[in-house]
TrEMBL record:
It comes from the Bacteria. This is Membrane protein. Transmembrane segments: none annotated. Residues 362-392 form a coiled coil. Keywords: Cell outer membrane, Coiled coil, Membrane, Signal. Residues 81-236 form the SusD-like N-terminal domain.
Amino acid sequence: MKIKIIYISIIIVFALNSCDGYLEVDEVGKSSIPVFFADMDGVRAAVPGAYSLLYSYYDFGFMLYPDAAGDMLRMNVVGADTKMINEYNYNATPEDEITPVGRIWRDAYEALANVNNILEYHPDLVNEFPQDVDELAAIKAETLFMRALIHFDLVRVYAQPYNFTSDASHLGIPVLLRTPAPDDNEPRSTVEETYFQIEEDLQEALELFEITTFEAQNNYRASRLAVLSLLARVSLYKENWSDAVDYATQVINEKSLSQGQDYLDMFNTVRANDETIFRLSGKLKSSAVGQFYNTTNPTGFADSKLVSLLDSEPEGLRLQLLKREEGDPTAFTLKYYKPGVDVGDVQHDMLVFRVSEMYLIRAEANASLNNLEAAKEDIKTLQARAQQKTVEEIDILESTTPSLLALIANERAKELCFEGHRLFDLTRTKQDMVRSSDTNAGVSTVTYPDYRFALPIPQTELNANTNIIQNPGYEN
């Protein structure tokens, strides 16, 4: 599928032809692109457009896929939206163009093209508008963060985890630092090369955020803390434990956990001082995630495996984010619907980074470094908040690294459920995917390693790009 870039009003939008490759970009009205980026108004309009495209790929497939392919979600496979059914049953094929296989690839690379256009014209804008150099530094930092995030998301979906090979030399994704010309056939980088570029972009973004005085007005825009959060997550996936501790600590030292009702509200209500670090706005957007998790006829809801974990804290805050009717075993998540609010008024934001995850990252990294007491303190902090107790009232009996890591894994499952983490947590820790005995999925167990832990490259891309190699296991 050839991506044709078209400018409508002041936001960059994409028109899709049905016959060529996703990475093959034909810039319709190419001569208008320099005009669009000729002044500050143009670049100021392009940045929100880029964020909107991030929301698109998060909403349709990226936020749903890791939970649908995980072990803690159950799907209604009859009478509901079943676009995720092949991922749930581990039956994904390269021909699945309108499901996550094709949509995440297409939408993420569209977002990447927008980001690269902003970065391409950034030097010209700096030269032309020196009085706006501070704002332009912040814009470049934001777009570098977005480019790193998109590459990181793509490599997690379409490649095996970083530690799949000892040197991460296995197939990654095409790394795009510019918008490809129509005749370009971009090959796949290795996973190591992909992560290298991700960290390069993040380090440059961090340097820019540290020198600019231009600050984002809300957490819908990337910030220094968002960059540090992504660096912490990337370090965790690479098992660079010391770096993970350092980056997570920097975030924790500057931003507090949400407590009590503020914690429950943050998923559906924007508050100035909640623990959210970076979120994608669902305002005025229809939402595939909202439809998937709606509380009337949902496609996805909590599996008994997750419910059992949450039931272990009967008075806990996190249990209040499940809706259950007496006599009905179905447990709906309330992270995307607020009780008492009309469905049409709900804003389905995607919470990409929040402080709770930083505590979990630091705990796992410290436990892996055998700093068990430090790891316990972070888990106690989260459990105290969840159970509405003091830290002193929380006891953790686990005394070995393996037992503490198992506890942390369960804590991640409880805290981050339905937020797009579960499959990636299983694969990066080389765990089997084992669903509950009463699962209705076609597959109950997938043993690590397995080729199905990465989605196939879409067939349309393979047809158009002779340099793209299909993931092992999906070859015709």
